[in-house]
Amino acid sequence: MTTAQRKILCVEPSPTQRAIFARIAESSGLACDNCATETAALQHLAAGNHCLVLIARQLGEGDSFRLIESIRLAPAQAMLPIAFVAAECDSQCAHQAMVSGATEVFLREELNELASFVDYWGRLPSTSLQIGRALVLEDSASHAAYVGEICRVLGFEVDVVADVDAAHRLYAPGKYQLVIADILLQGGHSGAAFVRQVRQRQASHQPSLVMSAYTDQTQRLQALKSGADDFICKPFLPEELVWRIQRILHAHAAFDHGSSREGVPGAGEHRWWQHLSPRERDVCRRILAGDPDKEIARQLGISFWTVRSHIEQIFVKTGALNRRDLMLRFMDKS
Cα 177 vs. chain centroid, distance in angstroms? Predict the structure, then answer.
């Protein structure tokens, strides 16, 4: 599909604001679908191929936060960039929008920032997900069946194994588009160790997700440092697993495509950079430079609470536990 054919969805009841958003879309070579309600927005998304969504705080009908959550829970739309646009937005409103799944929050008067957001995401090449075969390493038969069924719903063929030796016998580079491994297996073996061994023996990156019933931060950090793309705690809802799988596969597709790496410090060495929005990258650069939150807010011309919302999202998307962990990840070239 050509750039001229790509389009955004604008969910906004005000004709004036719709006209403004349409001009922003046109300046980036994008078409614009308009609607005013939650129901109409979901119908448009089901029928059309949109590269991003603009959602107003106040809708003609329905709830904007619920709409964002609905988009995130749909496998085909889980990774759509979403701009939440409000006439007024305090810290609680912004936090709720980000928690619901908004990519970035804008005030209506921030037209230059919104235009930059639309232009960035609108010009990124489309990346299709590679759905093929998944390897599930899990020694609980019931949980393996649960995870396997979710993967099948997404379109994967699934191989399930209960121990590391069986996983090694089945595994071959390029055979699996996704590996999901439990950390703690019977006999003291570790799914995270399997992920690390695969990473060490394979030249290209293997998309992988590690899961555990324990929420210990040290264990989570070690799993991510082993080479896993993400970590999920049991028990989890099917929607959360779908979202995390979608995120991993989209990031892997974008990384392979090589988009937006130029000018990014060490971007070729850090897959997590691909997860971040343009504003989050600005914030992240300043975190890595050691700037405190208030100084970041001053440099970027945004409020302190907006900086805090972006930092929360950076930690979620990168798997970092705190600023120190983020810096360690950046410095770790392994």
Answer: 17
Helix (H) or strand (E) holding 209: strand 208-212
Domains of the chain listed by start with CATH number: 3-123 (3.40.50.2300), 133-256 (3.40.50.2300), 260-331 (1.10.10.10)
User: In this predicted model, what pLDDT tens digit does every residue of 74-91 receive, in sequence order?
Assistant: 766 777 889 999 998 777
> pLDDT tens digits, residue range 284-303?
888 888 788 888 888 888 87
SS3 84: strand
CA distances from 283 to 30, 65, 114 (A): 27, 24, 17
State the pLDDT at residue 84: 93
Which residues have C-beta within 8 Å of that of residue 289, sequence separation ≥ 6? none
Looking from the CA of 125 toward its CB, the CA atoms found within 13 Å total 13
Residues 6+ apart with CB under 8 A from 203: 173
The label of the residue with tokens 């297996």 reads 185
Dihedral sign from CA coordinates of 36, 42, 44, 50: positive
Cβ neighbours of 290 (radius 10 Å): 9
**Cα distances (Å, whole numbers) of residue 270 to 192, 194, 275, 332:** 19, 21, 10, 9
Name the residue with tokens 């392994």. Answer: 334
Question: Phi, psi at residue 161, to the nearest 5°?
Answer: -130, 155
With H, G, I as helix, E, B as strand and everything else as coil, classify residue 221.
helix
